[in-house]
Amino acid sequence: MRAVQKQDKEIFDLIKKEEKRQVIVFVDASNIIYGCNRAGWKMDFKKLFQYLTTRFGAKRILYYAGLDSRNKKQLLFYELLQRFGYELHLVPVKYFSDGTRKGDVDARLAFEAMRYYDEYEKAIFLTGDGDYFWLFEYLLGKGKEVRLLGHSKSTASELKQLFGHSFIPLENIRHLLAREHKK
């Protein structure tokens, strides 16, 4: 009986160890989308999903964005992302009296990166926002393997310095990720 219990524990420990080897991707959607727009191209999110799963072995790709329930085009886009395999983590958009709107996802992304801390060995972040500096510094200091993908021109210099060679400029892989122009 004890041999069976020991074997069950060993199997359970092996499963837990394997889960921890997971690669999880955290996508700061607005940072990536608007960065592409400023650089004169559009991201093909199907190609991005394939790149992240093939290149990094990503098991989960978490997509953080604002949700404007009145925007039908956005809702259709989110349905498409789910079909590709993205896990959507949406924050309701707030409207301000001056006409601006904001879907602030930074706090949720940082919180969930820590919430899932024990579930991954390696994390890939798509952003350039310097607000994540403390999160990244902590993860790197704890020995997590972390990569950063972002637009060179709009990625905070302190992030590029922190990551060094682990920073991947999106313009370097644009040919793999850009949406093709329809003729």
Question: What's the short story on this structure?
Answer:
The chain is α/β, with parallel strands linked by helices. Helices cover 46% and strands 21% of the residues.
Question: Any overview of this molecule?
Answer:
The protein is of the alpha/beta class. It has one domain: 5'-nuclease (Rossmann fold). Helix content is 46%, strand content 21%. It is built from 8 helices and 8 strands; from the N terminus they run H-E-H-H-E-H-E-E-E-H-E-H-E-H-E-H. It has helices at residues 2-20, 29-39, 45-56, 72-84, 106-115, 133-141, 157-163, 174-177, and strands spanning 23-28, 60-67, 87-92, 94-95, 101-102, 122-126, 145-150, 167-169. The strands form 2 sheets. Strands 3-2-1-6-7-8 form a 6-stranded parallel β-sheet, with helices on both faces. A two-stranded antiparallel sheet has the order 4-5. The chain is globular and about 65 Å long. It starts with a helix and ends in a 6-residue tail after the last helix.
List the topology elements.
Layout: H1 2-20, E1 23-28, H2 29-39, H3 45-56, E2 60-67, H4 72-84, E3 87-92, E4 94-95, E5 101-102, H5 106-115, E6 122-126, H6 133-141, E7 145-150, H7 157-163, E8 167-169, H8 174-177
Parallel strand pairs: 1-2, 1-6, 2-3, 6-7, 7-8
Antiparallel strand pairs: 4-5
